[in-house]
Design brief:
With 763 residues, this protein is of the alpha+beta class. It contains 21 helices and 30 strands. The longest helix is centred in the N-terminal third of the chain and has 27 residues.
Length: 763
Amino acid sequence: MQTSRFLVRHALRAAFACSAVATLAPVQAAQAPASAAGSTAATAGLHAASFSPAELARMKATAGRVTILRDKWGIPHVFGKTDADAAFGMLYAQAEDDFNRVEMNFINAMGRLAEVEGEGEIWRDLRMKLYIRPDDMRAKYAASPAYLKKLMDAWADGLNWYLVGHPQVKPKLLTRFEPWMALSFSEGSIGGDIEEIDLKALEAFYGKAPVAASAVAPKVALAELSNNGFDPEPTGSNGFAIAPSRTADGHALLMINPHTSFYFRPEIHVVSDEGLDAYGAVTWGQFFVYQGFNQHVGWMHTSGGGDVIDEYLETVVERGGKFFYKYGAQERPLRSIDIDLSYKTANGMASRSVTAYFTHHGPVIRSQDGKWVSVKLMDDPVHALEQSYGRTKARNYAEFLKVMQLRTNSSNNTVYADGDGNIAYFHGNFIPRRDTRFDWTKPVDGSDPATEWKGLHEVNETITLFNPKSGYISNTNNWPCTGFGESSPDCSKYPAYMWSLPQNARGVHAERVLHDARGLDLDGLIAKAYDSYLTAFEPLVPAVVKDWEALTDADPRKARLAEQVAALRGWDLRWSAQSVPTALAVYWGQDMVKAAAPRARAAAIPVVDFIQTRSSPQERLDALARASDKLAADFGSWKTPWGEINRFQRLSGDIALQYDDSKPSIPVPFTSAVWGSLASFGMSAKQATKRIYGDRGNSFVAAVEFGPRVRAKSILAGGESGDPKSPHFSDQAEMYARGQFKDVLFYKEDIEKQLERKYHPGE
């Protein structure tokens, strides 16, 4: 099992996903309802002046080749003549639904957040600008394959055409999108590799003039880089693939169940006459379906995989005002780049300049023990964008595998199923080849040439499965050593750096529900994905019952906790909205997690594992007493049903949502994934209410059957639109809370039977 470095990196990815976007401006750009007129006459409006007559004519012509069909749920089905036409319409439709999220994703991706939010975001901007620089991105765009340039051109035109037709929309910063910008956000994961560079450590290093020794920059322990504790609300996902031998109709099934911040990805369908026909979730502002399916194949990504980032301890000396670092018997000069960090103030814009330093490994990001620390990670946005788009057009396993050979998916595992009855699993994709003599869970000696990456592992050298004998595949952001029944790989046969995360409670749960599953159809697969058992409490409940039984009658806890222990003793460990033991157990578990987090970090053990194995009887009993008191204080009695506490609420379209106990909300029965619930509903924002309001977990969820005609069912948290005035702002919320899915309208004849609106962009 890997040490804390990987677990912390996963925690940092989660922390960014939970909080980084939430720090963006809480006031949205004015939204126009999807039905708002954006006719050609509007091209004389505010934004049209930014474009030449030739540009406007080009965009208008493209819009004429695109048709958007909005179904009864507001889901856009975009039809274009070419792939580029479809990309144009795809971005136009996204902008209609939530331009604010589209714009903010790219403001952040390009390192310009402080220009909107102020000086407090300059270090986040610096982190992005270590990799994303306009001149470099323009050069990469110019060198891109012709087909990809057309897609990027259409991407920019689709967003610009939306602005032309909606002069009432006031962008925060980006009034004109350029094609190269698409390369700044080239894969759709909720927290890319760059975000794993710690901001506090970056500020500590660059906030003052760097020196060769770290006397002024304290060591930053990796296990202390997350402010949210060792186990923040889980990010990642569940992915299941079921072989025909285990299904009712002999067709492969795929379960797509990302656990992301709510509203991070809308649902979309994009079709062209050039073979594109992809349906699924798209990260706001991108032109490829990130998790989804076409009529032949489906793909689901789960966070995790292998070690894809390494840190190097660089021995740096200063001579004549210049810095050099040791490499072998040589001393090499550090490369320096002056980076401008503009930021918003009350009196207008201001800026400061930072000189960033680079070795051949990558940018210097902090100091440790008298060394500078550089970081090496994947930096190949063109191929990453090609892979992200290319998988959506694969028609069979061979074509999908060919796309995987690009090896630029650095942050995800992939669960796969297709119409030929195949299922497959790829644990990671971008895996650098390394010398196994070194401990890659820690920074390595940058002066030793033996620590260099030695290319990438071929896909067939990584942990993969194709049509496992067991007939099923599952991954829950856990290790790849289980999850496939008898076909689970022997992890000891692979380098330790090929897998980075341990087993988790969801992984145990998934293995159980799939192991004996037979005769599954779509509804049966959904039922498995919403199985209500909470595996994390299996060792905890019997332990606290035994602790209580060991108390003497003279101990006041014996009487005080008698009813609570009886409730837990009789509990079937299953969540429900009516369940009192679920509420008691969750509050009890949360109390233990909070108390144990520092020790768990120090021991490099996930905190739930820690409380299961290292909590004392007194700690368990005292936590139960405190949990009971909190429930009573907040809700009048500890005997409060879970559904009275755990709620779904969407009061506005803001990115940083606020919650209010006095406003309407909907009971949700499933819990945080921390406790082993496969269906996940958790709160990552700081709780300022008595009730728990979920903001992370099940977001876009879909089950797909690959028969002669693909069939699918899906559900979104809330709804498709970010506009509170839209009928599709929260029209799926009640169904979401019940785990009730809608039928996906994949074929045009079915879409037209349940059509709400049909139009060309700009009409």
